[in-house]
Amino acid sequence: MILVIGGTGRIGSRVVQQLADLRLPVRVLARRPEAARALAGPTVEVAAGDLDQPGSLPAAFAGVSSVFLLTTQSPRQEAQERAAIAAARAAGVSHVVKVSAGDAATAPNSPTPVGRAHAAAEAALKASGLSWTILRPSAFMQVALEPLLEGARDSGRLLLPLGAAKVAFIDVDDIARAAVWALTHPAPASDRTLVLTGPEALGLQELAPLVSRAVGRPVKAVSPPMLLVRMIIGRRIADPFLRRHQLALLGLMRAGRLAAVSPDLALTTGQAGRSVADWLADRS
Ligand SMILES: NC(=O)c1ccc[n+]([C@@H]2O[C@H](COP(=O)([O-])OP(=O)(O)OC[C@H]3O[C@@H](n4cnc5c(N)ncnc54)[C@H](OP(=O)(O)O)[C@@H]3O)[C@@H](O)[C@H]2O)c1
Predict the structure, then answer these.
(1) Where does the chain show beta strands of DSSP type E?
(2) pTM of the model
(3) Which end of the chain is more exposed for a tag (fewer CB within 10 A), N or C?
(4) In the predicted model, what is the mean pLDDT of residues 151-166?
(5) What is the arithmetic mean of pLDDT over 96-106?
(6) How wide is the angle at C-alpha 111 spanned by C-alphas 108 and 112, nearest 5°?
């Protein structure tokens, strides 16, 4: 049995779908079981459980051999991952596939609090005695680019504070594909960190013509100054933790730290990631 934590979210729902398509036994741990049941379909088991309530976890972990571990960005993230790792150990799980932050952001001295939490949770997983696979995905196309398309359609401007930097954006479907590979190939995936990126790094100059084609009008790329970005983020993101994370992440992006292209996705799954051009073509 494979237990999916975060199975109602962006990556997790795709992991559940891909595992179900392979007819593998899947269980989703969910705070809202009814919503998870509706999403996952009749062939997927759903177990009630909340990572903030460790007492709710043993029943969900019973009989589980592998765990997909994904938590959402919050000040509770590290504690939630530690609770899941402890529950996995207690239940005799053999392999845990954990989603971390990107390679540049995940470090004990990371400028982002989310990156520091992931680094601590990675260390806890490595020290647990469980077999592990860590996925370090780059910036998601669905998160970093999708919200910009409407603005580009309405105003003809693509606003992204990248300066001259490039980013190796990744499609969330490809992250799920890597996770499913690791869950279904525990021996070759064991004790490995996979850095997951798209097949190329793009900057504003490359993105503008692709977005123009997708939205059907000429689009001018604009990199707003960080002072303006701070003001916009201050207005849009109420939670101070998420605000700090977002600003630090943009700082890393702008410094070119998310530009490296990794071969890990193709080397493990046999197929490179989707390009931004292909991903945008579906949204035109
Ligand atoms: N955005 C990026 O570009 C990026 C890049 C690299 C890495 N990441 C990492 O990717 C992860 C986010 O992935 P995502 O976008 O797929 O997440 P997401 O869509 O926000 O999904 C989060 C999932 O966690 C579940 N959850 C939240 N609190 C829970 C709790 N207390 N107990 C059990 N389940 C709980 C949610 O369930 P409910 O349905 O109950 O809410 C949901 O299924 C983060 O760890 C982030 O650091 C993000």
Answers:
(1) 2-5, 26-30, 45-48, 66-69, 95-99, 131-137, 157-159, 192-196, 220-222
(2) 0.97
(3) C
(4) 96
(5) 98
(6) 90
Distance 70 CA to ligand 1 centre (A): 6
The predicted pLDDT at position 280 comes to 96
Please indicate whether residue 3, judged by its CB atom, sits closer than 6 Å to ligand 1. no
Determine if ligand 1 sits within 6 Å of the CB of residue 258.
Answer: no
How far apart are alpha carbons 102 and 36 in whole angstroms?
27
- Please tell me if the CB atom of residue 213 comes closer than 6 angstroms to any atom of ligand 1: no
State how far the Cα of 139 lies from the Cα of 155, in Å rounded to an integer. Answer: 24
Q: Model confidence over 230-244: pLDDT tens digits?
A: 999 999 999 999 999
Q: What is the pLDDT of residues 214-233, one digit of tens each?
A: 999 999 999 999 999 999 99
Q: With contact defined as beta carbons under 8 Å apart, do 81 and 69 qualify?
A: yes
Region at 216 (left for phi over 0; alpha for psi -120 to 50; beta for the rest): left
Superfamily classification of domain 2-136+172-196+261-271: NAD(P)-binding Rossmann-like Domain (3.40.50.720)
For residue 12, the CA-to-ligand 1 centroid distance in Å is 8
Output the CA 124–ligand 1 centroid distance in Å: 19
pLDDT for 41: 83
Q: How confident is the model at residue 275 (pLDDT cuts 50, 70, 90)?
A: very high
CA distances from 151 to 57, 89, 209, 269, 273 (A): 42, 47, 15, 35, 26
Q: pLDDT band at residue 63, thresholds of 50, 70 and 90?
A: very high
Atom 24 in ligand 1: residue holding the nearest Cα: 6
Q: Whose CA is nearest to atom 14 of ligand 1?
A: 10
Residue at 72: amino acid letter? T
* Angstrom distance (rounded) from CA 264 to CA 32: 34
What does the alpha-carbon distance between residue 113 and residue 77 come to, in Å, rounded to a whole number? 10
